[in-house]
Amino acid sequence: MAGRRARTGRGWDAGPPRTGDADPSVPPPRRRGRSDPTTDPDAGRQAPPRDEAEVAREICLRQLAVRPRTRAELAGALAKRGISEEVSAQVLDRYDEVGIIDDAAFARAWVASRHAGRGLARRALANELRQHGVDGEIASEALGELDEETEAETARALVERKLRTARGEPDAVFRRLVGMLARKGYPPGVAIRAVKDALAAQSAEAAEFADRLDADALADAEGDLDRPDRPLD
Prior knowledge:
The chain is an all-alpha fold. The protein has helices spanning about 50-65, 70-80, 85-100, 105-120, 120-130, 135-145, 150-165, 170-185, 190-200, 205-210, 215-220. It is built from eleven helices and no strands. The longest helix has 16 residues, at about 105-120.
């Protein structure tokens, strides 16, 4: 129709706004969880720095929640997190005083647990305590609770358990079992005697082989089995 104005979409004939279209005359709603710097007095403020000793204590407690730790282990954890030596010493001294950390108790528990659970001998246990930072004198006291008789009994029990599934000629089985005990820290004499006695009780063939063994001579010949740098089982 001539003279009729085209619709602009903004006059009397404009259609209703589509869903999702923003009305420019209505301010957008404020989002929750965000502070408005024009109205929130705490906006832009930074949290005050935390006390270094408090941070150090939290680090120690998290470490101790996993398992008991030695003083050296906690000191290493604090150093990795950038705690100063002075603050570290203060916190650890306090933990020593109240008994939260106790290297002597740690060493005793470690020796008892690892000997019973893994059958480790004193040499292997001494190596592990050293790796955990236990002082040599404290380690010696803890290892002193494991006597030679108990160590020999454990060695024999380890051999008997392995013999149940061992396959091969007696001489090959003998070498494997002696090597197994050596890696667990047993001296050559203890290892050879334990295997010899266990073989003697296994079968006639193994007993005949065991009778030909000179445990003392073999212990001297196999002295390199007692090297502290050998890997442990």
